Each structure stands twice: as C-alpha cells, then as structure tokens.
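Q: Focus on the shape:
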Amino acid sequence: MERATAGLAAGLAALGHRAIIITAAPAAPARYAGATIRKLTSLRVPWPSDDQTLRATITTAADLITAELGDIYREFQVDAVIYVDALWGLGRIMPATIPHRRILAAHVIGHDVDVDLALAQKPDAVLVPSASARAEAATRGFDSSSWQIQPNPLLTEPPPPDPQGRARLRTSGPIRVMARPAPEKGIVPLLAAASDAQVRADRRTYRIGDAQASIEVALAKAGFEAVIGSQDDTMTHCTAYCDAAAISLGDGLTWAKAPKWLAAAALVIVPYLRETFGLVALESMAGGTPVIAYRTGNLPALIGDGGVLVDLEAGPQALWRAAWQLRADPVRYEAASRAAYYLARDYRPAHIADDLLLKVVS
C-alpha cells in the first residue's frame, strides 16, 4: 500500500498536480517522489503494530485524528482525499464534510468491522486494485457492484531491457525472491521446498551446461504484522532453510533499489498464496524479468504471458520446477521477457494517475 501510494503521488506530480501524503510512520522524509509528506501527530502506535492495537488506538483518539486531518485538508486546500485502507489508511474515521471528494481505496479487503465503518462514512467512490479483489469483497457479502478497479502503479519506469543482457541473465543470472516475512507470502514453504530431493534433482536436470543458477532472497520486515513478533519468527525459519539449501538471504531493499535488483535477475519467483494485486511481480516484469507464480488472486491477470503460472495445489515444488524449465528454454524465455516488459508499460505512474483522475476525481 505504501509503495503504491508513492507511485500514485509520483504520477500525479508528473501530471502537474499537487500531491500530499499524510502518514503516522515514525520516520518519513519531508518530500517523496514530488509529493509533500505531512506527519500525523495525533496517532501514536508501537512500531511495528498489529491490527488490534492500531484499531484500539484509532478508536481512542478518533476525535483528535479527525480534527487534525481536517486542519491539514484546510491548510493545503485539499480537493480530494484517498483513504488508502479502511484501517491502516484511516478510512474507518474519515471526516464527514471535508474535502469535497472522499475516496476509499481497499488495497486488501480488511476486517468486516473496519470495512463496515468505512462504508458507513459514505465515500464518493470505492477503489480496489483488481477484479479479483472486487470479487473477494462480493464473496465476503459486500455490495461491490459499484466499486471501481484502480490498478496500482509502478513507482519508477526502468529503461527497456537489453536483449543481449537479458540473454546473459538467462544463462548466468540469479533466481531471486523478494517478500515480507508473512504467512500469506508463502516464503517459508518455498524455502523449505528448496531442499526437497526432487527439487534438487530438477535443478540439476535443467541447469545450463555446467552452470547452476544461484538463488537470492531479500526479506523486508514491515511496520505491520498479524501478531507482534511473527515476522521475527518467520525470519528465523527462513534463515534455517536458506542455510540448508545454500541460498543467499539478505535484508529488504529500498524502493529505489528494488526494481534494479529484480531487473538483474534471470527469474523472479513470487510464491504468494493470495494477492490482490502483485507489485513485486509488476516491478520484475517492468525490467523484463519473467515471473514464476501461483495461479491465485490477481497474479494471472497481471502476469499473463510474462512468466509461468502454476496451480496453488501443486505446491512450491512446482514453482521451482517451472523456474528451472523456463530458464533452460531460450525461445520461451525470450518471449516471456518481452511480454513482461510490454505488459508492465500499462502501469506507468502518470498513466495510472490520469486514469484515477478520470474515474473518481474529475
């Protein structure tokens, strides 16, 4: 949600609009990607925090938060505000009369108690990042028939991939994985499967000559987690599995460095068990890197021919096998790389920001 918000702000700034990001994060710059950053002082939670703690804090400080939001809107003469989420984006307490346009963005379909409160504020529009997210809301019992699909944008636009460089990456580049350590990201099962005897045999079978692709993982802890301490527990498991399978495990990357890291991979595996959009997949594709992922959520619609999709029921072994097979097939690999880059062009920041303005602001 944070990266998508920054990308949208960058797109709005590129179109000549003034964008303001309001955040309660403990460390934030004064400006980012052309947007002004304003610190919200009335919301103070431990960092990282979980949903229950944040919800209780917002409920207690609701009057102070809404008053401060109103002051900021008036100070900057805000015409339209997008609440990035019902809970983490403060949609559950949006001020009722200011500004003129109030929009709820449901990047994920959160807890019923938060979504119900946000919808009760009668926002002028509700946005979801994909058709799969809107379908999930309907399955959950929400009337999402009028909700509009607003895809997430890229934050940066990488240059077109070099065909010769991409060919070299296929044969000698690493296979990379980037995620946060959360159960729904599927990172623990993926790394556990790396030591599976059949996965190791497949890796030897599909290697290119004497070369065997290295595997590199970057895990970034977030400011939110399901249960306090759960990210540390996941990191402990991941470290053990990486040690057992000779996988390089590194820290998370900055937003500026992540696209370049993904673009320098032979393949990127996205092992997510559910996904309403898929920014890591999109950033990989923008650099011409094919993506291996489960056929779940929005990933099939996003990735298309820009990689390989496997059934969720097939498990992580199928992800590894698909990676080895695609890397060993130069014709199929080149086609996937080219498709990935051109599919990602539809998600340029200014293009997505213009789409937003046409849909819900103008």
Notes: The chain has two domains: 2-150, 163-346. The chain has a mean pLDDT of 93.
